[in-house]
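Why do we care about 3D structure at all? Because function follows from shape, and shape follows, mostly, from sequence. That is the central idea of this module. The next example makes it concrete: a single protein chain, its amino acid sequence, and then its structure expressed as tokens.
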Amino acid sequence: MVRILKSFEYKAINDACVAWLGLRLSPMAQQRTGIPNNAPNWGLRNGTYYGEFRMSELDYEEDFLMDRIQIAVLGASSIPPPTNFELKFNTCTLDPKQDLVVLVEDEQEGSGFAHFHFRSLTTGHPHPLAEHPVLTVRLDKAFLRNNNLLDQPMSTDREIMESYFLAKIHWPESDYKISEILVWEWKTGALLSRIYHEHTSARFVFIDKSHLLIYSILPEDTHHSARIALFVYRIPSITTNSGPVPGEVVYTKSAMLCCSHVITLGLEFRIYSHPNLRSCAYEPPEGNKKTVDFRVFVDTHSLFFHILPHSTEDTTIIPWTDWGTDATRWFIEDRSMEHLMLDLYRSQYTRYTTIKSTETQLLSIVDFNSPVIKLHNSGASSRPKRASADKVEKNAILDGRGLTAGRPFQTRISSAKLPIPTVGKTLNHQTFTEMITSEIKTIVRVGFKDPVESCLPYRVVTKVQRMPRHVHWQIHGEYLVGISRRDWNAAERPPLSLYKLELPLPS
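And the structure:
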């Protein structure tokens, strides 16, 4: 069902798009998290920052289990007390919008099981909508013995999307490369899908409420070398009603609006130059010259164009030549950036680099949303560049090295004359903008038998501002969030730096 946006909803979305395209941010505010400094994990989900930690006594010396979760709603003036689940768990996955947290028990050597506890994030009790508050995956001893897994910890990667809960089962410390992905309807406990993959590096994402996408390596055989493939699976439905579509909340003022589907996919993988080195999708050690890291951004409009006509058919193979060049943009990681994680929010990717001999950074937002880019292309202008500088920049894009933050403007932006914004201080709203159109192609030659061409347009906006140094920057909802480095002498994790999107005043 297609819902027509009301005029005020359209204006709200357009105002937010324009503000992000211009990187118009309010003065920095800082917010306590209340999370202990020794909390191992943190995350952002639906406007909530969270961390898991342990307050009860350890049962043994290397007891790394958690028992509490602390949350902090972005922009809130107070922090709720931590939730005590009175249950020890390895890690968690949560969805504050549904007051849902899934506590995970896994990584026990030789156990062959994983327990998933569905709890209320606020009370810590079993979630009232879960008919089966605990789901268990258990493997028989014969399977573990035959694959030399009796002494190996089983690990899980997880995701919640509305009424779906997904868990990927794998053994990261073993030579067993098979992984399985299970999808449940968590409210009823019904198992909807079981997907077998021949590589542990398989990554997954719900691209809308009906489709799961997995990207993985296809093993080489006598006819083919190793290949990267995208697998799209239709999720079976057990209900007739249609609930809210998946996606993060993107606007919460006059109306709460959510993304109906994933706009841009961010893929990352590595190619080894030595054939005996095993391939995987994780970062190599610093300075490893035998690997090449790739970042690939995929526009899902093209995927849906091919998926929908084949939704009622059996397995269909869509070759790269039918969709890949126009729908993707490839980059080779050039190691000039400190931030190597691939954190996309909707279609926006944050890149930053530290200015030499300072505690400041340059910040750029790279946007791959083609319709929005085309709509606002008239504002994508910057100071004219010399022909030589323009040629250097085009060559960098051609070779897949076009993701460095503020590359054409670093000399001017890094000037010591530019002030550093502190708490409550107005930011400079000047930006430099680069529009990379589909006419400017990227051609990747390293690592492939045939050159790989890509031409998905993108837009890079760099703030003319020296930003305070943070170890991590992330767009989340209507905020640019800065995560500071940890002070190990402090009791709590450092406060969050929040830069709220500056929207136009209502007329």
